Amino acid sequence: xxxxxxxxxxAFIVLGNFFLVAFGNHQSPxxxxxxxxxxxxxxxxxxxxxxxxxxxxxxxxxxxxxxxVLAVSxxxxxxxxNMLLPFSYAVVSGAVGSCSVLFAKSLSNLLRLAMSNGYQxxxxxTYSMILLFLSTAGFWMARLNEGLSLFDAILIVxxxxxxxxxxxIFTGFIYFQEYQ
Length: 180
Description:
Strand content: under 5%
Shape: globular
Mean pLDDT: 89
Subunit structure: Homodimer.
Low-confidence stretches: none
Largest sheet: none
Function: Acts as a Mg(2+) transporter. Can also transport other divalent cations such as Fe(2+), Sr(2+), Ba(2+), Mn(2+) and Co(2+) but to a much less extent than Mg(2+).
Membrane topology: Multi-pass membrane protein
Number of domains: 1
Family: Belongs to the NIPA (TC 2.A.7) family.
Number of strands: 0
InterPro entries: Mg_trans_NIPA
Radius of gyration: 20 Å
Oligomer: single chain
């Protein structure tokens, strides 16, 4: 049923998208492979990657621990773990899968550079970006498929989307140093 709240929320979404398109940045700089590699070796980005690895490790541990607890314990903790397991699963998937967005952005940048300046795509950096993109996107898709078989879709799909979107935005924010 369409309520006044739904209509108001939809209006705010449309209005927000309008402002985003009307007043947002319409130019995207083209970086050289050296500039992209320099951004990957930035100390802030490396610290972020370390934190991301720790977040992934923590949530993977929580997920594995929850599986063990659910297999052994009675009903007293079941509601708690039934919500925490899909959340931890989605955080691991979203954190790793979001890196595919950054690698895809790097690849698209290299393609734009190749089309405009004649940059040759056969370099170690290009091949490493392709490998990293395929690895992280493949991980994301495999976890998405596995998550759909493990959890109720109405629960896990929004969790996947929220985790992936959050980490994608934050990874780009740190990598492109948009905080400066």
